[in-house]
Amino acid sequence: MGSLKKRSVNLAGHATSLALEPEFWRALEMAAAAESLSMAALIQRIDTGRGESSLASACRVFALKQALAAQPGREEVGDGRG
Questions:
Q1: Within a domain: 21
Q2: Of 21, 38, 40, 59, whose CB is crowded by the most CB atoms within 10 A?
Q3: pTM for the complete prediction?
Q4: Three-state secondary structure call for residue 59
Q5: Ribbon-helix-helix domain spans which residues (predicted)?
């Protein structure tokens, strides 16, 4: 994977920066496009549901779950608890 790329996002009226590998940015762009959302709207949705995880970690997990769910024969991606 490549080095981290920072982007500025506005979450709940506050500017913040988010650093992810380019591969994760691409996966998020694809997910946003698939749902007809802006990148900001997708990241806001991820932020809202992330609990105590960092935003970067929550975005990576979201991207991974999307990729796993897209695999043939996969109906639902669990939370890894067994």
A1: yes
A2: 59
A3: 0.81
A4: helix
A5: 5-66
What would the pLDDT profile of 1-31 be if each residue is shown by its tens digit? 559 999 999 888 889 999 999 999 999 999 9
What is the per-residue pLDDT for 12? 83
Q: 6: burial class by Cβ within 10 Å (0-12, 13-18, 19+)?
A: exposed
* Structure confidence at residue 81 (pLDDT): 40
Tell me what pLDDT residue 20 has: 97
In a domain, 58, yes or no: yes
Could you tell me which of 20, 21, 80, 23 has the C-alpha nearest to residue 56?
A: 20
**Residue 13 — left, alpha, or beta (φ > 0 → left; ψ -120 to 50 → alpha)?**
left
φ, ψ for residue 48, nearest 5 deg: -60, -35
Domain that holds residue 13: 5-69
Query: How many domains would you assign to the chain?
Result: 1
